[in-house]
Amino acid sequence: MLTFIVKRLVSGILLLVLVTSGTFFLAHTAVGDPTAGLLGNSATPAQQAALRAQIGYDRPLLAQFWDWLTHAATGDFGTSWRNFQPVGEQIALRVPVTLSVVVAATLLAAILGVLVGVVCGLRPGGVVDRVLKLASVVLFALPGFWVSLVLVTWFAIQLQWFPAVGYVSPDQSVVGWLRSIALPSISLSLGAIVMIAEQLRNGFLQVANQDFVRTLRARGLSSRRVTTHVLRNASPSALTVLALMFVGLLGGAVVVEIVFNLPGIGSLTQSASQIGDIPVLLGLTAVTVVFVVIVNFLLDLVLGWVNPKVRDR
């Protein structure tokens, strides 16, 4: 187990360095001179030169990269080029908002996806199974922002069950916090529910036809115990999809946060991209990769617990 943890940590660090390095050079290539976006079209050449010197953009690119990398290794992502506030502090204020929505959406997807997947696996071709197939076509054909707007129109404007926009911190009101993240979480989770349910259904049907399942039934085990064995053997693929969906939901949070006016890392990414605020983009990339590494590490632990063969490998 110790060797496994060390290998995962080393691979996670390498992934973090590679992704942030690629983002650094790609961002500098795409943005070019950021002073025009930061100061506006009315800025004079002298003002642009002064800003380049202030943010260190007049230095060689490799020197800028090494300076950022050495500081980022200590948790210092520098200062924003837009407001000259520490990047780490800005991200820390917005991460709880995004994580609230993404974690809630992941939980919804896991619970409902497993329930629907098991029902479809037990009764293939039934009503729930046919609804699942229809939902998979409809949800993947519809844009995510359109689904979000429909939810706002129905449940926020017409029924007034939830607020249409805004975010309430759990420190202020737990009920208000749950109401503020309800619609964004539902909007994010719909596609994930369908994907997890389909993956679990297919795995369930595949495992249910194997010889050891027929042996369990022949030994007189109850249907509930047989279903438990089948579900345990079919769950690894669904767990993998769930982990991938968590990472995907982090990216999908950009659209949802814009529609629901949430002050999360998605809206921060959009604003930083528009003006070429590279330090903020790099900090967001590093934080996102850390989340990916943690999720993959936890996934490996859960898979090892569910399937001993994975643990042996």
UniProtKB/TrEMBL annotation:
Pfam family of the protein (one): BPD_transp_1_N
Similarity section: Belongs to the binding-protein-dependent transport system permease family.
Name by which UniProt lists this protein: ABC transporter permease
Lineage: Bacteria, Bacillati, Actinomycetota, Actinomycetes, Pseudonocardiales
Location of the protein in the cell: Cell membrane
Domain of life: Bacteria
Residue span, ABC transmembrane type-1 domain: 95-303
Keywords for the protein's UniProt record, in alphabetical order: Cell membrane, Membrane, Transmembrane, Transmembrane helix, Transport
Native source species: Amycolatopsis albidoflavus
